[in-house]
Specification:
CATH topology of the largest domain: D-amino Acid Aminotransferase, Chain A, domain 1
Mean pLDDT: 84
CATH architecture of the largest domain: 2-Layer Sandwich
Helix content: 25-40%
CATH superfamily of the largest domain: DNA ligase/mRNA capping enzyme
Strand order of the largest sheet: 3-13-12-4-11
CATH class of the largest domain: Alpha Beta
Length: 658
């Protein structure tokens, strides 16, 4: 009954806000009256009473004034937990098999910008974009202008949730209709939303009418909330707080097929951009017990619609040199509309695929967007097989050679190699230097100011030359120097990734650092055989690593680079002989001796223990200062015979006196 009343109140509030705002705009900005003062006051008072009774104040409410903010740059912040992508399938049968005998929630996979929201004491305190999954941009002021986002909520503890910021098709079309120039119109709602959410002025964000739909409850701290081990209860809780939740249905193996078809029928005229569906397990404890892979959580999977294809004419193959020396073929064709956007180019990846497709200029080809995102060639209907492979590099004119189905530029000083290498070096997951675009790097390389990575830290010596560049004044130069100086303090994984060793991405850089106990010299001295024994490295990557450090020139340049950097000390080694080593813990409730549960978790893991999110038969201890609590975790622990211990006991096991 309470939920029904709450929903009715929210619906009424959403009716009142635009009516009152339109009346206010007409009266104050347009010198006209569309309702009497008596009627306005009556509706205003009704809205005030509804806000007081529900504890919810929606964005745009005339009862609050949101001051617009402008910033010079969006600050960046690391997420408490990495935001992983989802495993994907296009098979309805595979989706049903994945679900098995469990129940799940099937919902839209919205196509916008993922946002993490934090509320404290009932008020929105922080909003951060997904970014690269580990580091996002803080857009709190902008989020406060989202048209349907609660500014205040009833829950008074700390609440963290995730959702999607979107611009509806109707709003997108309205914005585009006001732009007379065809070339200036926005391409699709997702790109418009991404740019709108990340504006430096929240006034612009407000004008774009961005909406927010919650799709994941993360954590609630301070006030215990029992979801009875059911994910749907989390969604209902978020609804009670005033959030619009992504549309979903509860499914099992027998009903999922019909529900997918229902979504497929609805997407034809659905106003909110979506690129598929998401299936998530309802059983919270079972879902948590599955854990995650290096890339995906195991409790959810995405369903992608079958790819839309289009026929077009191949006009050109553009050969694009990369930092590794590979020259990648890119197909240029007559523009076609795919998934709502115009597409005119697609990577062909390598010569092997190019030859398999038997391409020739003028051929009729079919193209599609893999996962509705990445343009690809599906088939060649002509198959003329007349394309010529270039024998010189388009960037430097150096000789090219074919090797294992790839085209390679042999010139070690090829400008394209250097530009791509520097672009990687300054990227967010590497040295994280803001203010150095590929275009700027190209200019600096062309001026001879960068011959190796260490030169980056001597750019301050060239102030006069750099500030003379078009669009690069004193302020830009000073900001760049500050960013470069900040990058001097870094970690070994970032440095290894920044070096650009072929095949070594951010994840492998972390893996190598841990394996060699954060000892760079040990890594440099390792041979191919020992490297190939490392899990997930293998003989090819091992050969790339060994070859890189066997090159005297690379080592000399690295030594000069290290002279400019301060590498953070290695994390302390995990203790394996403590009383918690090998034990599995779950922490719930509030903690007294730590600022949060994360601190306690780190101490347990430091001594070889493991902390998970839910109580299962594999749990050794549940830590809860309120041992008599009737919370779901305490109930589950008692059912399974898992000991419930308080903070004092775990501190004793850790041999820590506080």
């Amino acid at each position: 009954m309470e939920n029904t009343q709450n929903n009715k109140a929210l619906a009424r509030m959403k009716e009142l806000i635009p009516i009152l705002n339109e009346a206010s705009k007409a009266y104050y900005a347009q010198d006209r009256e569309i309702m009497s003062n008596f009627e306005y006051d009556r509706l205003y008072d009704e809205l005030t009473e509804l806000e007081a009774s529900t504890g919810i104040t929606l964005a745009g409410s005339p009862t609050v004034t949101v001051g617009y903010e402008a910033v010079d740059a969006l600050p960046k912040e690391a997420h408490e937990k990495p935001m992983l992508s989802l495993a994907k399938t296009k098979s309805r049968e595979e989706l049903a098999d994945w679900l098995g005998e469990h129940e799940g929630l099937l919902s839209w996979k919205l196509d916008g910008l993922t946002i993490v929201l934090t509320y404290e004491n009932g008020t929105l305190s922080k909003a951060v974009t997904r970014g690269n999954g580990e580091i996002g941009e803080v857009i709190t002021a902008n989020a406060k202008t989202f048209v349907n986002l609660p500014q205040k909520i009833p829950y008074q503890g700390k609440l963290i949730l995730r959702g999607e910021a979107v611009i509806t098709y109707s709003v997108f079309e309205k914005i585009n209709a006001e732009i007379p120039e065809a070339e200036a119109k926005y391409k699709n709602p997702r790109n418009l939303c991404s740019g709108s959410v990340r504006q430096l002025s929240s006034r612009i964000t407000a004008e774009r009418q961005v909406s927010f739909y919650a799709f994941s409850f993360v954590v609630a701290q301070g006030e215990e909330v029992d979801f009875n081990n059911d994910r749907e209860k989390q969604f209902l809780f978020l609804k009670q707080q005033g959030f619009d939740v992504v549309e979903y249905v509860r499914v099992n193996r027998n009903t999922i097929g019909d529900q997918i078809e229902a979504f497929a029928q609805k997407i034809v005229d659905y106003d909110i951009p979506s690129d598929g569906l998401v299936l998530t397990l309802c059983d919270l404890e079972y879902a948590a017990s599955l854990g995650l892979t290096a890339k995906f959580p195991r409790d959810s999977i995405a369903f992608k619609w079958a790819d839309e294809t289009a026929q077009t004419t191949l006009r050109e193959i553009e050969w694009s040199p990369s930092r590794t020396g590979l020259i990648n073929p890119v197909a240029i064709f007559d523009p076609v509309e795919l998934e709502g956007t115009s597409v005119s180019r697609a990577s062909v990846h390598n010569i092997s695929i190019l030859r398999q497709l038997k391409l020739g200029i003028g051929d009729q080809i079919t193209v599609y967007k893999a996962n509705m995102i990445i343009p690809q060639i599906a088939d060649n209907l002509t198959g003329s097989d007349t394309l010529q492979i270039p024998d010189t590099c388009p960037a430097c004119g150096g000789q090219t050679v074919e090797d294992s189905g790839t085209l390679i530029c042999k010139n070690p000083l090829c400008p394209a190699k250097m530009i791509k290498s520097y672009t990687l070096f300054v990227s967010r997951d590497a040295m994280n230097v803001d203010g150095l675009s590929e275009m700027t790097l190209e200019k600096l390389l062309g001026m001879g100011l960068l011959k190796e990575f260490a030169d980056l830290y001597h750019l301050a010596e060239h102030r006069e030359k750099i500030t003379a560049l078009e669009g690069f004044g004193e302020k830009s130069f000073d900001n760049l120097m500050e960013s470069i100086d900040r990058s001097r303090n870094t970690t070994l994984p970032r440095l290894i990734y920044a070096l650009g060793i072929d095949g070594i991405g951010s994840a492998n850089a972390k893996l190598l650092s841990r394996h060699f106990h954060y000892d760079l010299k040990a890594l440099m001295a390792a041979d191919t055989e020992s490297l190939s024994e490392i899990d997930k490295i293998g003989p090819i990557l091992a050969g790339n690593i060994a070859a890189y450090f066997a090159d005297a020139g690379n080592c000399e340049r690295l030594e000069r680079l290290l002279a400019e950097l301060t590498i953070e000390e290695a994390p302390e080694e995990v203790t394996t002989d403590s009383e918690v080593a090998g034990k599995v813990f779950v922490i719930t409730g509030s903690v007294a001796h730590f600022s949060n549960r994360k601190e306690l978790q780190e101490l347990i893991e430091q001594q070889g223990g493991k902390v998970t999110g839910s109580v299962t038969s594999k749990t050794d201890y549940l830590i809860n200062n309120d041992i008599t609590s009737t919370s779901g975790k305490n109930k589950k622990a008692k059912e399974l015979g898992v000991p419930i211990i308080d903070e004092e006991t775990i501190l004793s096991l850790l041999k820590i006196d506080i």
